[in-house]
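Run Nitrogen fixation protein NifZ through structure prediction, thanks.
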Amino acid sequence: MIEPRAPIYAWGQPVRATVDLFNDGSYPDVDEGALLVRAGSLGEVVQVGHHAEANLPVYMVEFGRTVVGCLEEELERAAPATAAVSEA
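Sure, done. The structure for Nitrogen fixation protein NifZ is below.
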């Protein structure tokens, strides 16, 4: 059995979206393909999970009132002093 890949971000950690994040169809009450979060938006990791098939960490990130599932390549660390959560 393959060990789950360790996440690089932790619960409560401030992060920034590195790309525009669009609805892949999993976000309720929003059209598929709609922009959810703009690149550069600040957020906070509120949950860390794991995608078993892909063996990848998955992060639930709160960007203002919008919580989005993100992969590591869609995020970067944000300095705590500048981590005021922005509106999406």
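The chain has one domain: 14-82.
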